[in-house]
Design a protein that fits this description.
alpha+beta, Arc Repressor Mutant, subunit A, 3-stranded antiparallel beta sheet, 319 residues, 15% strand, Endonuclease, Chain A
Amino acid sequence: MLDVLGLDDAHTAVYRCVVQQTSASVPEIAAALSMSAPRVRAIVAELERLGLFARQAASSDRFVASPPSVALRPLLLERERGLTRAHEALVELNDLYRRSAEQRSVADVVEVVLGDDAVRQRVAQLQAAASQQVRVLVLNEIALLSGEENVEEDRALERGVRYRVIVESAVLERPGFLAAAREMSAIGEEVRVLPTLPTRMFVADDQMALVPMRAHSQEAGFGALLIHPSGLLDLVISIFEEYWRSATEFLPIAAVHTAEDVDRDLLRLLLLGVTDAAASAQLGISLRTLQRRVADLMEVAGVTTRMQLGAEAVRRAWI
């Protein structure tokens, strides 16, 4: 409740505790909330400074809560006024930026971002600012930011931003990737697969693109090019859309593993180019079991090669 005022859950808990009583001392609050007395004493002092607590007239070591409508309303109104001023400043700065952007030279269309931390910061900023969609190309080589570290992606998905991600087929062999992809798919992330990709790419809405400054095969310090709205950005977006049209849709692997589910998932993985060893590890079965299942499926389908099996699996709607 009090987080909108810059206070944490502990402050809210202490205030709520005292609101429900006529008065309370620091030891009583600490016992009720299972918190240390020094921690409670510091929180009480902060709430008293903000006018949310007052000392009882008859006993100065006991505290009473100020009425929420009296104590919180002025603080909330001041916070609202601050947000309004910040929004007005944002509109003004954005207008100034737009006017300067219209006067950019060719050289100003692209910014150079140097250093790992600076690139990570731009990736986070672009995702935090995205309101419609984010397009991503993912190479097999681990990038600066792993999926676990990319908290802005989770936040963007939660607020309804669409993620379209194309990965190299080798990415599917990473331990835990399939489970993570299934989880992200459930909250709106779309994944497609291509055998190889030329570079990493990150596009936020239709406003900014971030691409590596060097080819992924080159060794050197990390840097990136930040591309502003321009014909170059349009070209980058068009390249992504062309890859998207030609990529294979990644279907989430089944959460439960009946025999039919394992066969279905096995066929999907093989069609996407995953090796037998990697597929067996992802599915939790031995390599020998996987190869036996492939042989059994070929016999059922009446084919003699894996390529024929893939075509027959599609024709029979096995996947």
